[in-house]
Structure formats: C-alpha cells, structure tokens
Amino acid sequence: MRLLITVILCVLGYGVYAQHTIKGVVTNSYGEPIIDSHVDLSSICVDTDALGSFKFTNLKSGIYTLKVNANGFGVYQENIQLKGSLQLNIILTDEETLETIVIHTANQKVYNQQKVSQQYIQNNYNSSLAKTLANVVGLDAVTVGTQTAKPMMRGLGFTRLAVTENGIKQEGQQWGADHGLEIDALTTESVEIIKGVGTITHGSDAIAGVIEVNNETIPTEGFKAQYFTTAQSVNKSWANALNSSYKNGNHFYKFKTTYTTFADFKVPVNEIVYLGTKIPLTNGNMTNTAGNEASVYGQWGFVGDDFQSVLSVSQFKNKSGFFAGAHGIPSISDAKPDGNMRNIGMPYQQVNHTKITYHAKWLNPHSIWDFKFGFQRNHRQEYSFFHSHYANQNPPEINPNLELDFKLNTLNTQLTYKKDWLVDHTTVLGVQTQYQNNDISGYSYLMPNFNRLNVGVFGKHNWDFTTNWKLELGLRYDNATLNVLGFFDTILFDYLVEKGVDYNLAKQNAQRAVPLSKDFSQGNVALGISHQITEDLESTFTVASNFRFPTAMELSSNGIHHGAFRHEQGNPNLNVEKGWAFDFSQHYHKNKFKINTSTYLYYFTNYIFLKPTGTFSILPHGGQMYRYEQSKALLTGIEVDAKYQFNNIDTQFQIAYLYNQQINQNGVNYPLPFTTPINGQFSLQYRFNKYLFFEENVLQLNTKAALQQKRIAQNEAVTPGYTLVNVQAGTVLHFKKFNPQIRLQVNNVFNKVYYHHNSFYRALDIPEFGRNIQLFITIPIQ
Description:
The chain is mainly β.
C-alpha cells in the first residue's frame, strides 16, 4: 500500500542528550510490507520505506504515543514507556474492502479519493476492469457485450477520464465507445480513484478524475502465488489466471498471466429493432459475439534503503466478433446462428497492446526523486469482408478484408521531486512529456495519420496550517503540438465525378484529411481545503480549472463509423476545451456507521461534442452526417455512500444523481450523451461462524435500481427504469495448507429484461444479460 500524499517525514532534531532507538516493520495480515505508511511518535513523524521499515533515533526515556496509519487499513495506536531501545513488528488490518480514504496527515484524512483493493476486484469481478469498478459510487461503464467496456466517472469518460498503470497513462483508442480498456482485471493488484487537487499531476485528460492501477506492490520474501478460475453461464466463458511472485533479498520478480475464452452471449429477448429493421434472435443468441483474451505480465524489481526500481513488461490481446446483424447496414441473415457459438467470424476486431514501464525512486531523509518511463504500442484492427462503397474500388492485394487498422505508439516520461519542509509543508514539482504517433491502413477510412507532442510542468503544495485545517494548491502548464497528415481519396474523387457530382464539390469531399499543424497551450490551477470539524466529521472543498486538448479524431476524422452507422467529421477549428470544477465532500464516521457524501459541479465554456448536422453524407451508405462542435455545458450531481455494521451483518447503501446540459446560443439545448440515470444499490451481507472446514462464510443479497432516463442526447433513446436482484455466497475451505476461496454469484436472479443506458448496444435495442451464474475460485499457492 502506498499513500499518494503523505505528511512530513520527520522533525529535525529531538533532544540532544537522547540515547534510545525504536525500529520497526509495518506489515499487513499476510506479512507483506506496507510502504509509505505514516508513523507518528508523539509528533515525530516518519514514513516506512520500500521494505516497510521505520526508525526513530536519539530518543529520551519517557512515555510516547505511537500511531500508525496507511491507506486502506485501520489505525494502530499504543502508548510506549521507553526505557531502552525497542524492535517492533506492527500489523495493520484491513479497515474494509473498499475504503474512501485518500490523503493521510498527522491530524486528519481528506476524503476525495477511493481505494479499491485486489480482494474487492476479485469479489466483484465482472469480465473486465471497467465493469468490475462500475459498482463504485460515481463510476459507470460504457459497455459493448460481455468483455468490452470503458469507465465513466460522473458522466465523463473517453478522453475526459485518465487511466494510468504504474504511473503511466494508458493510451489506446479512447475516442471510441466500442473500444475497451486493455488492462486485465484478474492481474490488477489495486486501484485508486483520484478526484480533486491530485488530478493536477495528470494533465489534459483528467477532467473527471484519474483511475490509477497499481501493479508495483512489493511482495514478501520467498515464493507466493494465486491461481484463479472463473466461469459464467451467460456466454459460457471460462477464465484462468496465475499471479506469482518471488523475492530474495533486495530483488523481486513477478509473473502473471490470464486467458479467457467466451462464446456468443444471450439476451432474454427473441427480437431486436435496429434502424427500423426487425432482426430475429434465435433463442436470444447474439451471433458472432464470441472471442478470447490473453495477457502476460512480467516484472523485476530492486528495493534498497535509498533506491528502488521496477521494470514491467506486459502484453494484452483481445479478439472478438461484432454482432453481424448490426454492423453497418442491418442484416437479418447475418444474425442467424452459424452453428458454432465459439466461432469468431466476420466482422471482428483484434487488439494487441504492448507496454513497458520503468519506475525508479531515490529516497533521502526529507525528499524523494521519482522517475517514470513508459512505452506503449496499441494495435487495433477491424476486419470485414471487402465491400466496395465505390464501383471503382478494388480490394487490396494484402489483407483484403482489413477494413480499419490503427497503430498508436506512445512514449511517456515523468520526473518529480518531493520535498518535506519542517513540520507543516510538503512540495511536489514535476515535468512530463508524451510523444504519440498514429499510423493507419485498411480499405476504409475514418481518421488520419498524426503525431503529437505534449510537455507539461506542474507543482503541488500541501500546508497543514492548523491542527484541523489543511490546504492543497496545484499549478500546471501544458503545451501540445499536433501534426495531421493530409489525405486525398482519389478513389472517392473519381467515383463522385463519374456520378456527375460537381468537380469542386467532389474535390472537397475527397479531401478526407486536410494537412494540419496545431499548437495548443493551457495552464490550470486547483485549490483544496479540508477541515476536521469534529473527531467524527470531516469536510473537503475543491475548486479547479480544467482543460482538454482536442484529439485528432475530433479535429480531423472524416469517414463512416460503421458501429454507429453514421458519417463522422472532425472540425479543425476546435479550441482547447476549458471549464471549472467544484467538489464538496463530507465524511462522517461514528462507531460502526460511516457515510460519505459528495456534491460536484463541472462547467465548460466550450465543451466538445458530436452534433447531428441534419444533412446526409455524400458517401455511399454514409447515413446522417455528424460533426464535432463546441458549446457551453454544465454537469452536476450528488453521490452518497453509507455503511453500517452490527454483529455479523454488514449493510451498504449507495445512490448517485447526475444532471447535465449542453448550452447552445440558439437556445436549443440537449442533455449530453451517455448520461447515467439516477441509480442506487443496497446490499446486505451476513457473515457465518466457522463450521467444520468452512471458514469466512458470507451470504450477500444485493439490489440495484435505476430510474427511467428520458433526459437524452440527440440520437439517443429513452431508457426504462429497472430493479435487479443479485445474490452471492462465499467461503474459504481450510485443508491444512490447501485453502481455496469459493464464491458463487447469481446476477439478475429473476431474468429481468432491462437496458443499460450507457451500453453501446442500447442504440440497437439490445438489452442487458438475463440471469447469469458465475463461479469464482481462488487458490493460494505457497
């Protein structure tokens, strides 16, 4: 575990004539060291190092209060009567599976970030990382079928929500709703969800916040492994994963791998309607939605007293079919079963994501130098039988069925310096660079070749100016240069001329991408104030300017997006998206009752959105023309997360409300797309006593509900409300050294037909899954 922002490491000097020493190690219940846990000895403060160790020297005899806290763990506190040197072993226990604590100081905690443990991910696993995190209040997922999903936060996603792994921003095709997040949930060690001033270190794409995936946990000495296997009934999926680690002295190694295979999924209806065409489904079968995923992850690390480094290499692959009945022109015949539920036919997508990250730290008594490097190659291909939109177009000689091909290469570097000043102040300074290059090919066209360079500098300062008040200030400045390669479509030009289209109009439409060189610069500021009102009540208020640079897709796209059945066109005149964000959060914790509330508001002066033009594309089968435009926009909402525990029963209640509005000058305003409706959930968990060799027995009942969403964007459909019932049972079997954890879960117990408003398939009238039975088994290997 680590803390994103910690307080002062120590106070200089403490008694000239002291002679005693206190040494110690802080670990979790598994014996794993907890790095960056905060150790307070009667106001003398240190943080544990990479081995979980701490040390106080030159101490006088006397009585001291020792207090230890770490993100996601309960607070340890005891009084020590010091008469001589001591060696301590402190074990912190999990406070709860999902903890909403972010910033720990000697006097208070700031509640503007959520921590999701590996245990939570396993207990709530739902095919992909984005769908697994969707149960966290304020989060949702844009979904396509069973595996493909990308996260949403407070109604913002895509390029407005940053996702990082090991401190390096995940880069893929974020612009597309039908493009997933290429991070494997089963190999993820922990996740932190950042809001507020902490987003200042992430730049352009962190308007909504940041989802930080941490896979750099330092393992315990020796060999340790876990094997996971899980299966689901709705798509006959079977996933197997192995996470292993080995540590010997200062060196450690990790190897993790996952393989998932899934068949065509089923929905509880026998007919859908797509673009006015009724498409029958045989036994609810979504033909050609099968696929497979595989990931391999290797890591080497070195940990010393004043230096540590971690090198990680990973490969993620996905191959899955597109529902053929709704790819491009509606097709009844393509929706018929092909006789093999695991067959991946045309059309289909294939994604390979390669990532290399390196992280080094130089630790001094009162400062830390931190360097991060990352290289990513995201290769996405979409295959479909060659279908000429123009009579004069011939299939390519190589890969004739390759419709779209995107190769995105990204290089990231980051250097930060953290300094602890005296007792009350901590400063972080940093510089980031990112270079991207995107190459395209395929017989179709949607977006251009481009390269992009971004350089950002930032600073952040924490000040504990009284016992109960804390101030955070962040500043950042970014400069981005985008170069787009022009493309003139001679095949389209000849086709239009042969059809009798005016020469100048044909030339204008055949210029699919205009050569473009854009230079964007923007600064922003963030201010956060937190107050410990009473021992049980804390409040945090954050105000921040925010910005986002337009993407190449928004500036220069010009082609048919088959998944959305429309012609999408970029706008080279787009400016930097700007706005302000306000967040007010309160946390109350009394005995076994805890409640977190958050009220937020985002105001954009020039929000970028895709607008129907009211005209039809001149391209064959192009459909309606959509163009990227800008206008003012407003998003606001409330999130509540309450928990109460008594005896062996745990209860949790969550509710989230989101309101947003595009504000046009002409007075015709629409809600923004993918607006999550009012939703909530209630869960009741009962923990049973040990019986025979069954331990840690739990039974959970969960209900989820969403109200009707009739505040819809243009080209969206009203989504009815729904209520779902889910049940789950879990246990740990104890047979000497063999202790498998077993969890059986049934979602949508009553097989209800319902629609998820943020499903990409919602536009096709395709409902969510019916009853789904999932078995999850974890086997620790020592």
